[in-house]
């Protein structure tokens, strides 16, 4: 059962991202570099937000569980905001790089368009975010054990895999929307992306019940993102 | 020891980032006569602005490809090391044995004593490496090639036979595979001999690259096993500082080595460098070589033998008499001499640069770099409590460092140290992820929060 769970959860969580990588990104070296640099930027944002959270934890009373939980929630929201800031920073970096390439090349078009870069950058963020959430869970699922033996939910692995999948794809969509908003200076699009990200992070935090939470959060954020993507295109 | 020789040349150099449009030889590359022209006979070509811009653009365009050509072997080496660390417990067990270069023990009573011991260990190791590098440079400068060849030969022998024998033994123990000595001897013998041939003589490019990756991984595993904790981290930090100084300072040993090699138009020992394109040997006998230049299929004389992945046919270079007859029939009898070829070369040509230039402009990375990158990621996976997150973070950090180093290489166009940026990023991300991100992600995972 454990190996089956491992493979099942791995494919659920990383299958689409992996196939996107293989079919659209792997052939073009420039896109691979942009992908890895996107992952790096997400990692930087996570590092800084963990630093802030760590400092706040150390500065507070570790016995007060309520406070710890509130600090964690604050940490989550701060991390979301910082991720969006780094997404913007990555956008600026990529624009500069494209301009540099376009300036010295003969043709008017550069090797890669802003939309492609947006997609690749979003996927980079998504893959890294998903990997960080899921990899430790996956490696535990391989070993001997029983899920939920102490009364917790039996569906831990599968919900984790599905949430990772959702977040990876969401980051990709958000990347596309965000860069589009920056390009066309439509600030409401950027605001929408940020608020959606906050909403998703927040929704996961207030579960109604084990199944209800998953249902509502996934459905709602898919809906929102598809509506907005349709609008801007 | 093998490691010192490999540490010695841990810098990055790129071939032919200058002038892709011209078939001139650039100082960073192995010097080859192209199309019948000796390297020094060509008058200096003055690049106009547009040509320079095009060169720059071509460099940047091809820069991404070179980065990927290095990403893949570095990733493969790291994957091998991490996979071994995770599955074969031998390399994470501390038997109490240490290398003779790190005599001080770290299982002391106080933290201060431990810090002192590890600093002393690191100092001894680094000074051994510095001494070995200086010896290598002196030997190279005074043309004692045989000594260097013998040294490299012996160290590769040790790695390919002895260390891989130990590795294979441990893998068999882990998976409880029964094996007799005869079969084992056969396997190790074949592996080792083919490795020696590929690395020190001729062999298919991919096989040679695979062997270089394997010996780097073996070396990294040895370091992970035998270096104590704090010593290993200090050595990583110190060696990147040393690398920076050795390659960039005017009197740095590695810079002297690279410059001497460039002056003499020789490649640096292939057993120490991973090359993404054809590998060139030095001190091979002269022989007539051909190259399939798509626009000028003319046989040429070369000073060195190309260990090309394609088969080397007989000396007529594949221009069988039948083909020559046919050409002469179609185009009329032609006689090309050195002078006529040179004249034709000097005519301005609008043809695109020949195919091979793109592939020849490969990039080289020293094996020492592979070893230390893999050592960092291997230690991250072995000892980090954040486990896979830390490993992944270090992996991405090292790749980004390598990417930045190659970017700088494309801008500055001379040999650069490959360790400082990557190792700095790797160390920062290791300690940050292990101490800051891990508790955060653990808390998030417990409560099932997703960011």
From TrEMBL, chain A:
<feature type="transmembrane region" description="Helical">
    <location>
        <begin position="186"/>
        <end position="208"/>
    </location>
</feature>
<comment type="similarity">
    <text>Belongs to the APH-1 family.</text>
</comment>
<feature type="transmembrane region" description="Helical">
    <location>
        <begin position="6"/>
        <end position="25"/>
    </location>
</feature>
<feature type="transmembrane region" description="Helical">
    <location>
        <begin position="155"/>
        <end position="179"/>
    </location>
</feature>
<keyword id="KW-0812">Transmembrane</keyword>
<dbReference type="GO" id="GO:0070765">
    <property type="term" value="C:gamma-secretase complex"/>
</dbReference>
<dbReference type="GO" id="GO:0007219">
    <property type="term" value="P:Notch signaling pathway"/>
</dbReference>
<keyword id="KW-0914">Notch signaling pathway</keyword>
<dbReference type="InterPro" id="IPR009294">
    <property type="entry name" value="Aph-1"/>
</dbReference>
<dbReference type="GO" id="GO:0016485">
    <property type="term" value="P:protein processing"/>
</dbReference>
<feature type="transmembrane region" description="Helical">
    <location>
        <begin position="32"/>
        <end position="56"/>
    </location>
</feature>
<keyword id="KW-1133">Transmembrane helix</keyword>
<comment type="function">
    <text>Potential subunit of the gamma-secretase complex, an endoprotease complex that catalyzes the intramembrane cleavage of integral proteins such as Notch receptors.</text>
</comment>
<feature type="transmembrane region" description="Helical">
    <location>
        <begin position="117"/>
        <end position="135"/>
    </location>
</feature>
<feature type="transmembrane region" description="Helical">
    <location>
        <begin position="71"/>
        <end position="90"/>
    </location>
</feature>
<comment type="subunit">
    <text>Component of the gamma-secretase complex.</text>
</comment>
<keyword id="KW-0472">Membrane</keyword>
<protein>
    <recommendedName>
        <fullName>Gamma-secretase subunit APH-1</fullName>
    </recommendedName>
</protein>
<dbReference type="Pfam" id="PF06105">
    <property type="entry name" value="Aph-1"/>
</dbReference>
From TrEMBL, chain B:
<keyword id="KW-0966">Cell projection</keyword>
<dbReference type="GO" id="GO:0030424">
    <property type="term" value="C:axon"/>
</dbReference>
<dbReference type="InterPro" id="IPR006639">
    <property type="entry name" value="Preselin/SPP"/>
</dbReference>
<dbReference type="GO" id="GO:0061053">
    <property type="term" value="P:somite development"/>
</dbReference>
<keyword id="KW-0770">Synapse</keyword>
<keyword id="KW-0378">Hydrolase</keyword>
<dbReference type="GO" id="GO:0000139">
    <property type="term" value="C:Golgi membrane"/>
</dbReference>
<dbReference type="GO" id="GO:0006509">
    <property type="term" value="P:membrane protein ectodomain proteolysis"/>
</dbReference>
<dbReference type="InterPro" id="IPR042524">
    <property type="entry name" value="Presenilin_C"/>
</dbReference>
<keyword id="KW-0333">Golgi apparatus</keyword>
<keyword id="KW-0472">Membrane</keyword>
<comment type="subunit">
    <text>Homodimer.</text>
</comment>
<dbReference type="GO" id="GO:0055074">
    <property type="term" value="P:calcium ion homeostasis"/>
</dbReference>
<feature type="transmembrane region" description="Helical">
    <location>
        <begin position="211"/>
        <end position="227"/>
    </location>
</feature>
<keyword id="KW-0914">Notch signaling pathway</keyword>
<comment type="similarity">
    <text>Belongs to the peptidase A22A family.</text>
</comment>
<protein>
    <recommendedName>
        <fullName>Presenilin</fullName>
        <ecNumber>3.4.23.-</ecNumber>
    </recommendedName>
</protein>
<dbReference type="GO" id="GO:0042500">
    <property type="term" value="F:aspartic endopeptidase activity, intramembrane cleaving"/>
</dbReference>
<keyword id="KW-1133">Transmembrane helix</keyword>
<feature type="transmembrane region" description="Helical">
    <location>
        <begin position="67"/>
        <end position="85"/>
    </location>
</feature>
<feature type="region of interest" description="Disordered">
    <location>
        <begin position="291"/>
        <end position="311"/>
    </location>
</feature>
<dbReference type="GO" id="GO:0070765">
    <property type="term" value="C:gamma-secretase complex"/>
</dbReference>
């Amino acid at each position: 059962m454990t190996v089956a769970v491992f493979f099942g959860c791995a494919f659920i969580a990383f299958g689409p991202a992996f196939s996107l990588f293989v079919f659209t990104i792997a052939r073009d070296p420039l896109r691979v570099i942009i992908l890895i640099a996107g992952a790096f930027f997400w990692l930087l944002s996570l590092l800084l937000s963990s630093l802030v959270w760590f400092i706040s934890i150390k500065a507070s009373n570790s016995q007060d569980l309520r406070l710890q939980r509130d600090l964690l929630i604050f940490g989550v929201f701060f991390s979301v905001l910082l991720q969006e800031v780094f997404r913007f920073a990555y956008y600026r970096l990529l624009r500069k790089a494209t301009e540099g390439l376009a300036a010295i090349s003969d043709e008017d078009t550069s090797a890669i368009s802003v939309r492609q870069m947006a997609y690749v950058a979003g996927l980079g963020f998504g893959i890294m975010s998903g990997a960080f959430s899921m990899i430790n869970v996956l490696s535990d699922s391989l070993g001997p054990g029983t899920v939920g033996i102490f009364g917790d939910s039996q569906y831990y692995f599968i919900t984790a895999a599905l949430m990772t999948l959702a977040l990876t794809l969401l980051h990709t969509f958000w990347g596309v929307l965000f860069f589009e908003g920056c390009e066309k200076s439509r600030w409401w699009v950027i605001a929408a992306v940020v608020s959606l990200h906050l909403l998703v992070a927040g929704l996961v935090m207030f579960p109604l019940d084990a199944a209800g939470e998953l249902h509502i959060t996934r459905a709602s954020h898919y809906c929102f993102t598809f509506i907005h993507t349709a609008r801007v295109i | 020891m093998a490691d010192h020789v490999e540490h010695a040349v841990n810098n990055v150099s790129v071939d032919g980032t200058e002038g892709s449009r011209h078939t001139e030889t650039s100082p960073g590359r192995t010097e080859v006569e192209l199309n019948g022209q000796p390297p020094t006979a060509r008058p200096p070509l003055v690049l106009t602005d547009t040509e320079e811009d095009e060169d720059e653009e071509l460099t940047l365009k091809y820069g991404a490809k070179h980065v990927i050509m290095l990403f893949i072997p570095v990733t493969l080496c790291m994957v091998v090391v991490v996979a071994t660390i995770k599955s074969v417990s031998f390399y994470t067990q501390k038997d109490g044995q240490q290398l003779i270069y790190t005599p001080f023990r770290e299982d002391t009573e106080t933290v201060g004593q431990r810090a002192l011991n590890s600093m002393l260990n690191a100092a001894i190791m680094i000074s051994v490496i510095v001494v070995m590098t200086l010896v290598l440079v002196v030997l190279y400068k005074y043309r004692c090639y045989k000594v260097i060849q013998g040294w490299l030969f012996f160290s590769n022998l040790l790695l390919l036979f002895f260390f891989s024998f130990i590795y294979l033994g441990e893998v068999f123990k882990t998976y409880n595979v029964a094996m007799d000595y005869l079969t084992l001897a056969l396997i190790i013998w074949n592996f080792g001999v083919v490795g020696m041939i590929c690395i020190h003589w001729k062999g298919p490019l991919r096989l040679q690259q695979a062997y270089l990756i394997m010996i780097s991984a073996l070396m990294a595993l040895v370091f992970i096993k035998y270096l104590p904790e704090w010593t290993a981290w200090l050595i990583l930090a110190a060696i990147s500082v040393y690398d920076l100084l050795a390659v960039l300072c005017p009197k740095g040993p590695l810079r002297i080595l690279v410059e001497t090699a460039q002056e003499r138009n020789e490649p640096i020992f292939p057993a120490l460098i991973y090359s993404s394109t054809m590998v060139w040997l030095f001190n091979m006998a002269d022989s007539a070589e051909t190259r399939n230049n798509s626009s000028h299929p003319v046989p040429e004389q070369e000073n060195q033998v190309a260990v090309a992945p394609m088969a080397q046919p007989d000396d007529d270079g594949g221009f069988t008499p039948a083909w020559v007859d046919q050409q002469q029939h179609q185009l009329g009898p032609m006689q090309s001499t050195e002078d006529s070829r040179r004249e034709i070369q000097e005519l301005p040509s609008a043809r695109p640069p020949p195919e091979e230039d793109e592939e020849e402009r490969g990039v080289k990375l020293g094996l020492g770099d592979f070893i230390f990158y893999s050592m960092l990621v291997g230690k991250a996976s072995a000892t980090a409590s954040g486990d896979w997150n830390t490993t992944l973070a270090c992996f991405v950090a090292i790749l980004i460092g390598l990417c930045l180093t190659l970017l700088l290489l494309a801008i500055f166009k001379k040999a650069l140290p490959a360790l400082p940026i990557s190792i700095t990023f790797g160390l920062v991300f290791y300690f940050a992820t292990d101490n800051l991100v891990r508790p955060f992600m653990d808390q998030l995972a417990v409560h099932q929060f997703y960011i």
